[in-house]
Amino acid sequence: MSIIDNRKAYHDYFIEEKYEAGLVLEGWEVKAIRAGRANIKEAYIIVRGEEIFILGMHITPLASASTHIRTDPTRTRKLLLHGAEIARLIGKVERAGFTLVPLDLHYAKGRVKAEIGLAKGKKQYDKREDEKKRDWEREKQRLMRVKA
Fold this sequence. Notes:
single chain, globular, 7-stranded antiparallel beta sheet, alpha+beta, Small Protein B, Chain: A, 36% strand, two-stranded antiparallel sheet
């Protein structure tokens, strides 16, 4: 079950492959995510050396967060993947013109995981075409309901 979805990613990109990655989080961040106080709409993923990081993910601290901890809502967080997956992703991002986008945050075995997608950007006409398809499907469903 998803905690937070990034629907904008599906609108702006063609998602080719999906991967599940762990996140390196602090305690207050996990509590805030459980409370649904995270935002990944403006987040993006970069490769630094042999590691993958997520930037721009905003986690709003709870009011009850400890006062002796300095909370940084938009700090850079490391993503945890297997070495072979990282190597494959780095190769595709650097050579094939793909990008990495966060798709959602969810729980797996009690831990917060991020689903990331290997994506290619959509052109404006692709977005319009998708919208036309979606509208036609909606209209088709409406017509079927009226007939029945």
